[in-house]
Amino acid sequence: MKTMSCKQLGGACDKEFQASSFEEIIEMSKQHGMDMFLKQDEDHLESINKIRGLMQKPKEMQKWIDDKRKEFEALPEDE
Ligand SMILES: [Zn+2]
User: Relative to the CA of 61, which of 7, 35, 48, 54 has its CA 20 to 30 Å away?
Assistant: First the structure.
């Protein structure tokens, strides 16, 4: 398992997600983003808007995902 925070995944808080694969951790952070969106949390709304902006530009979105994937892969395994 590896740990990444909401902030590390483009979010706005220090909540940590633990997963054994990058896909899984992205899914957890998406779910959390959705919860925060429903709560209309301002900080998260801002970061969600940034990601939405990225989604309009597939190349930049792909680069963002690749960067995050590298970041995830470079992390040490949790004890
Ligand atoms: Zn968060």
Answer: 35
